[in-house]
Design brief:
About 50% of the residues lie in helices and about 15% in strands. By secondary structure, it is an alpha/beta fold. Strands 1, 2, 3, 4, 5, 6, 7, 8, 9, 10 and 11 form an 11-stranded mixed beta sheet that branches. Helix 4 packs parallel to helix 14, helix 7 packs parallel to helix 9 and helix 11 crosses helix 14. Bound molecules: pseudouridine-5'-monophosphate and manganese (II) ion.
Length: about 300
């Protein structure tokens, strides 16, 4: 039974029972996306922002044989301290991570799955996985994209890191029928930078119209949706600078032959080190901004029942 393995935090269970707004948050960003202790600080501050905007935060992780939606403060600390010593669980790893026990950070794909099982339909993250550069030979396409096509959760992100091939990522999302919605933008953002030069066909500027659209999308059984919220201007890094970081990180990965599930964490860490931590400030601020937008959407969706 799923219910034996799914544990809802008391605050999350109550909110869901009352039909209140809940926002899911992922944990691979904590275990594999940022170093300690900044990861813990980010995780707490993102939860606080969700609360401040009227929703209940549900950070999702795999802990000691259970899928937990709404981890407590002690669990946030454990996840942050373990970092890369925890495993990284995407869809294919879910059952084995549960059987193995211990801690696993959930990627966007697994966080969506667990959120949907719990009855949560809005999720905030930093950046999603996508089609990697060179995918035409490596076939490296994140399971996040397929999950978006089938699982009814709206994922608010700052686009995708330009460590990915952005046009191919957008093409795969289109093939899978995933709406990619610009939140107050016409241009797909690329994590550190507000624009990529790749235009989006869908744009929403007010939260009520977006909630109407999402409500119908879920009602029709059309799977998930991606909401792209550009990093706040004050923290933006220009595209050339970010591109130089990324090229250097990709070069390192290539030299060391990093592959598979290790590539995304490797690149994130390489960029952190290359920039002497400068990339981290932007990373944290965009996660915070996404949490705020997600909370507002969740509140509007909760009103629609
Ligand atoms: N991109 C980021 N930060 C992250 C991730 C991606 O800028 O922390 C994490 C997310 O959890 C995402 C996962 O779901 O990496 C994708 O991994 P992969 O490419 O192995 O599917
Ligand atoms: Mn991959």
């Amino acid at each position: 039974m799923i219910t034996d393995r799914l544990l809802l935090g008391a605050h999350v269970r109550e909110a869901l029972n009352r039909g209140q707004a809940v926002v899911a948050l992922e944990s691979t960003i904590i275990t594999h996306g940022m170093p300690y202790p900044q990861n813990l600080k980010m995780a707490r501050s993102v939860e606080d922002l969700v609360r401040k905007h009227g929703a209940v935060p549900a950070t999702i992780a795999i802990m000691d044989g259970q899928m937990v939606a709404g981890v407590d403060e002690a669990a946030l600390e454990r996840l942050s301290e373990q970092g890369h010593a925890a495993s990284k669980a995407s869809r294919r790893d879910l059952a084995s991570a549960l059987v193995q026990g211990g801690l696993a950070g959930t990627t966007v794909a697994t966080t969506m799955m667990i959120a949907a099982m719990a009855g949560i339909h809005v999720f905030a993250t930093g950046g999603i996985g996508g089609v990697h550069r060179g995918a035409e030979t490596s076939f490296d396409i994140s399971a996040d994209l397929e999950e978006l096509s089938r699982t009814p959760v709206a994922v608010v992100c700052a686009g995708a890191k330009a460590i990915l091939d952005i046009p191919k990522t957008l093409e795969v999302l289109e093939t899978h029928g995933v709406p990619v919605i610009g939140w107050r933008t016409d241009d797909f953002p690329v994590f550190y930078s507000r624009t990529s030069g790749h235009k989006l066909d869908l744009r929403f500027d007010d939260v009520d119209s977006l909630a109407d659209m999402l409500h119908l999308h879920f009602d029709l059984g059309l799977g998930g949706a991606l909401i792209a919220n550009p990093v706040p201007e004050a923290f933006e890094i220009n595209r050339e600078t970010a591109e130089n970081w990324i090229k250097a990180a990709l070069h390192q990965a290539d030299m060391r032959g990093v592959r598979g599930k290790d590539i995304t964490p490797f690149l994130l860490n390489a960029i952190f080190e290359l920039t002497g931590g400068k990339s981290l400030k932007t990373n944290i601020e965009l996660a915070r901004s996404n949490a705020e937008v997600a909370a507002r959407i969740a509140v509007a969706l909760a009103r629609r029942g």
